[in-house]
Amino acid sequence: MHTSPKKIMVVTGETSGDHHGAGVVTALRETQPRISVCGIGGEELEKSGMELLYHSRYLSVVGIFEVLASFSHIYRAFRAVKQRLITDPPNLLILIDYPDFNLRIAKIAHRLKIPVLYYISPQIWAWRQGRAKKIARIVDRMAVIFPFETALYEKAGLPVTFVGHPLMDKDLARASKVTVLPGLEKTAGPTIGLLPGSRKGEVDRLLPTLLQSAEIIKKEIPDANFVIPAAPALDRKHLDRLLSRAALDPVVTENRFYETLNTCDFAIVASGTATLETAVMQVPMVIIYKVTFLTYLIGKIMIRVPFIGLANLVAGKKVVPELIQGDAVPEKIAAEATAILKNRNRCEKIKEELRSVKKALGETGAAKKVAMLARDMLE
Fold first, then answer.
1. pTM of whole model > 0.90?
2. Does some domain include residue 172?
3. Could you tell me if residue 171 is inside a domain?
């Protein structure tokens, strides 16, 4: 007698979550090829065979006011998930990141007695640490990607597993300037990466500042070269429009993020996962962050961490400079960058510190470990 295939729902609201979710589903299918999967995600989850209830591209926004503008999409997506949980409950719900949305979904699943596995924990270590107890009431198992997160959930009585950071599974092989940046390999000067983030709002806010910083650096270090490894989600036409207004003409690479970053001697990076990616590649950097004034004020009141950059948070100390809000101005950014670039010892010291950040992120195989947790819960 055949048992009917197990049903799983996966919910994420961001590009990175789509990628991580697809890794978990693919790993699950290796031992359970008949599982049926539905939920919210993007192209990668769809390719892994998931039925999309709503596309995550409509949900990926940052900042309080941006969320308000996308509210109708968020509401429709929420309704679609709630409806499916009630009418065709899965055997397991896997929630990935996207906490404001996903914790509400977890509450509904808990009421319906559907087991919940949460992968990539809400950042309770940054603010509202008291939420750990609330999360423990509605989530059955937590899979965390930072080593310092386990203690918070253990204290709250929630079963937790450190699975390592999914970034450790990426192929970060060293690439040469010849293959990635033809023409630049002949120059003696440093190659500096400009990483303005992956969301349109971030790029609009930060790219002009990055370009102005680069102009000042160029005066100090005339043979410096600049490159923008464009995030896959970025609209190239929009990026070109912003670049057409600049005095500088950086090289833009597409779909070669890690290879491009590998050729950089230094980077100016918008706070976010990219700071960790840059750290893992051991590229010295300065981290910058700027949001709307009101979002910043609210964040300042609520955020309880000494650093904003993930690289510094994982290190537990300030390994690379951070310039936030009013300090994220071209003159200050350029001054920090040139001070590091002109000091070889400081450069080497930063690289050494970044090696220990990489080590702290654990071994490879995060998606496989999450798939194993999911299998245990299904059984």
1. no
2. no
3. no
pLDDT tens digit sequence for 161-186: 999 999 888 776 555 666 667 666 66
Q: Are residues 159 and 185 in the same domain?
A: no
Q: Which domain holds residue 44?
A: 7-164+363-378
Q: Which of 113, 73, 74, 77 is nearest to 93 (CA)?
A: 113
**Most distant CA atoms of the chain, gap in Å:** 76
Which residue has 């979904």 as its token pair? 105
202 and 88 within one domain: no
CA–CA gap between residue 275 and residue 286 (Å, rounded): 9
Domain identity same for 348 and 373? no
CATH code of residue 91 = 3.40.50.2000
Helices (H), the chain: 15-31, 43-47, 64-69, 71-87, 99-111, 131-138, 150-156, 177-180, 200-220, 236-244, 257-262, 273-280, 293-302, 310-315, 330-341, 344-360, 366-378
From CA 105, how far away is CA 11, in angstroms rounded? 9
Which residues partner with 117 through β-bridges? 94, 141
Q: Which two tokens stand for residue 359?
A: 């080590």
Distance set, CA 377 to CA 47, 104, 213 (Å): 24, 21, 51
In a domain, 170, yes or no: no
Q: Contact at 8 Å (CB) between 314 and 357?
A: yes
Cα separation, 18 vs 56, whole angstroms = 8
Report the C-alpha gap between 48 and 37 in whole angstroms.
Answer: 9
What per-residue confidence (pLDDT) applies to 61? 59
Residues 41 and 74 in one domain: yes
My answer on whether 331 and 211 are in the same domain is: yes
Residue 213 belongs to some domain of the structure: yes
Q: What is the pLDDT of residues 300-357, one digit of tens each?
A: 655 666 677 888 888 889 999 999 878 889 999 999 999 999 999 999 999 999 999 9
- The secondary structure of 10-40, three-state, reads EECCCHHHHHHHHHHHHHHHHHCCCCEEEEE
158 and 282 in a single domain? The answer is: no
- Quick one: DSSP state of residue 334? H
